[in-house]
Write a structure and sequence with these properties.
The chain is 35% helix and 16% strand. The chain has eight helices and seven strands; from the N terminus they run E-H-H-E-H-E-H-E-H-E-E-E-H-H-H. Helix 4 links the parallel strand 3 and strand 4.
Length: 196
């Protein structure tokens, strides 16, 4: 997992609430066994018109958002099924941070396990970013300081579980975190064996 300390990027506005995982990555694209290659299918149905052509009005199709790496959306982002493919698709497309006022718990956990930061801001802060992003907006997300700022004087602090924060900063998923404790586990096992 890539360590995450801070990230500066263009904000892409997705002004929709209750975005579920089937909208993020539709079920017909879940046949792959790799974690890569899903970005091209991100928001597949929303990106297209009825005739299959790209909808020029959808945020990911707009020229001004092609370099975006921070997605801001309405509340309850990632609801629906627990598919881990949703954060894979967002990351494969190029997003490092998803900002919303609330996330579905399983989606949020899946993001943490893959190095994607689901950042919960106040509804006011999220609404501000949605508005600013329409006119082009770059923000910095500092996980170490637990702040998001726009370079124009606005900043908002955010809360995150200390264990999750530490894991993201160090780039540790559950497996690598366990492996980082190998020496302690070995000592425990040796001590336990000597008492048997």
């Amino acid at each position: 997992m890539r360590p995450f300390t801070s990230h500066t990027g263009q904000v892409v506005p997705l002004d929709r609430t209750d975005v579920d995982t089937d909208q993020i990555i539709p079920k017909q694209f879940l046949k792959r066994i790799e974690r890569t290659g899903y970005g091209q299918f991100l928001f597949y149905d929303w990106r297209r018109q009825e005739d299959g052509s790209l909808d020029p009005e959808f945020c990911l199709n707009r020229e001004e958002f092609q370099e975006g790496s921070i997605l801001v959306a309405g509340k309850n982002f990632g609801c629906g099924s627990s598919r881990e493919h949703a954060p894979w698709a967002l990351m494969d497309y190029g997003f490092r941070v998803i900002i919303s006022s609330s996330f579905a718990d399983i989606f949020k956990s899946n993001c943490y396990e893959n190095g994607l930061l689901p950042l919960e801001l106040s509804e006011r802060g999220t609404a501000r970013l949605l508005t600013l992003a329409e006119k082009s907006c770059t923000v910095t997300v500092d996980l170490v300081a637990q702040q998001v700022m726009d370079g124009q004087g606005w900043r908002e602090e955010f809360q995150i579980d200390p264990y999750v924060r530490n894991s993201l900063i160090k780039g540790l998923d559950r497996i690598t975190h366990t492996l980082s404790l190998e020496e302690h586990i070995g000592s425990y096992e040796n001590e336990r064996d000597s008492r048997s």
